[in-house]
Write a structure and sequence with these properties.
Rossmann fold; single chain; 20 helices; 5-stranded parallel beta sheet; Helicase, Ruva Protein, domain 3; alpha/beta; 4 domains; about 50% helix
Length: about 450
């Protein structure tokens, strides 16, 4: 009897007679069978078809079933894979199941057993799909953010968020400023079992170092001048929920050990406290810095980095997914029109070309701001390039850093002037990133505070 729902099955088997027998058995149940003889052919079939399950021999003339399994999981982490092996290859089949295969069949294959495993795999697939849809629907009702993007990298991130949300693992979201890291963090929380608990966010770069510890861990009355009563910190407020540590790369080195203890032991001490506070908090951290480089430069603790990056997610910049610019633009325009009670607006062809040509250094945030401004400035129903305010200068390449350098004189003279200018620019940048806090800037530059003072005086800073 045909199954309630027919499905596409990818069958990977090099022996023609066995492959034909298995295909007939599956087709008799109403399934559509896509065939492959080896690993490269199976990978091609995964690209040009959307199978609901994969049935693969472990021994293939080119490649093997482990390669097919990996390719299937790369294409769709929830795709069920059943492997086939001769009786002597049971150990390999067990290894394949450890690598993600759902089940295995011992040869010679019995058609009834095959059909039973296939139906079980398809039923599991349907349950996972229904669970995901219900979870997304519930999250949307609770206000979960909508992740917009059709690029393959965005689909992979959405899948990763789904998988991360089903665990309590610490998540580290890396990406440039403006890529929407907090939105992804909120999605992890909304799709998790902690969605009924609080989502507490703190920007580690926006709070002075002297106040950050009190904000994170709270304090007792009398802990310092002005502490007139006990105040709970962000860790305590996020109990049984999610704590989002934004710009974790800016966390002062002296606080990193206390954060590590809170992550590992689920306890912390308030400032001025005499007893530890127990917490149940899921941590999601984000950074626009390359933390591995910060670890190498001894600006970030290696043990804390590994504790944070249990489940890393990298959000690509907008320039690496230009196919999403149009769908994002239409979303922001429609959203702004609704909020301003304006009639729906459309992009002129030239406007869309301008948006797709622009490099968007500020990423999605810059695109959103650009289109919000355009909707406000546009009187009619069409947004033209002039409404976008993207000037020619915006598209120009960065200036040559040597263009203003005096290249006259000896090589030693020019080298001295170049080093002088580089030091000036680097110190200026470090001071700006440290909010003109010279000791903190010295830590960033990995030089002593007195050395920094001497250089600032010599450079006229």
């Amino acid at each position: 009897m045909p199954p309630a729902i027919a499905a596409t099955i990818l069958l990977v088997e090099d022996k023609d007679s066995l492959r034909t027998m298995l295909r007939h058995a599956l087709e008799a149940q109403g399934h559509h069978v896509v065939e492959a003889r080896d690993q490269p052919e199976a990978i091609e079939r995964l690209k040009d078809s959307v199978p609901a399950a994969v049935l693969s021999d472990l021994r293939l003339p080119i490649g093997d079933g482990f390669g097919v399994l990996k390719a299937a999981k790369d294409a769709d982490p929830e795709l069920p894979v059943i492997v086939m092996t001769a009786f002597g290859g049971i150990r390999e089949a067990v290894e394949a199941m450890k690598a993600g295969a759902m089940d295995f069949l011992a040869k010679p294959v019995e058609p009834d057993h095959l059909l039973l495993l296939v139906e079980r795999a398809l039923a599991q697939r349907r349950l996972i799909s229904e669970y995901t849809l219900l979870k997304e629907e519930l999250a949307q009702r609770r206000g979960a953010p909508t992740i917009i993007g059709e690029a393959a990298c965005m689909k992979q991130i959405s899948s990763a968020i789904q998988r991360a949300a089903g665990t309590d693992a610490t998540v580290l979201i890396e990406g440039e400023s403006g890529t929407g890291k907090e939105l992804f963090a909120r999605a992890v929380h909304a799709l998790s079992a902690r969605s009924n608990g609080p989502f507490v966010a703190i920007n580690c770069a926006a709070i002075p170092d002297t106040l950050l510890e009190a904000e994170l861990f709270g304090y007792e009355r009398g802990a310092f001048t002005g502490a007139n009563q006990r105040k709970p910190g962000k860790f305590e407020l996020a109990h049984r929920g999610t704590l989002f540590l934004d710009e974790i790369g800016e966390l002062p080195i002296q606080l990193q050990g206390k954060i590590l203890r809170a992550l590992e032991e689920r306890t912390f001490d308030r400032l001025g406290g005499t007893s530890s506070v127990k917490i149940d908090v899921r941590i999601v951290a984000a950074t626009n810095r390359h933390l591995k480089q910060a670890v190498a430069a001894r600006q970030f603790r290696e043990d804390l980095y590994f504790r944070l990056s249990v489940f890393p997610i990298t959000v690509p910049p907008l320039r690496e997914r230009p196919e999403d610019i149009e769908i994002l633009a239409r979303h922001f325009i429609a959203k702004e029109c609704r909020e301003l009670a304006k009639k729906p607006m459309a992009l002129a062809p030239g406007s869309l070309e301008a948006l797709q040509a622009y490099p968007w250094p500020g990423n999605v945030r810059e695109l959103q701001n650009c289109l919000e401004r355009a909707v406000i400035l546009t009187d009619g129903s069409t947004i033209y390039p002039k409404n976008l305010n993207l000037t020619i200068e915006d598209f120009s390449p960065p200036p040559n850093p040597l263009s203003h350098l005096d290249l006259s004189g000896s090589l030693a003279d020019v080298t001295h002037r170049a080093i002088w200018e580089v030091e000036r620019q680097v110190i200026r940048q470090a001071l700006a990133e440290a909010n003109n806090d010279a000791p903190r800037a010295a830590d960033r530059l990995q030089i002593g505070y007195k050395v920094l003072q001497t250089k600032m005086k010599a450079l006229g800073l």
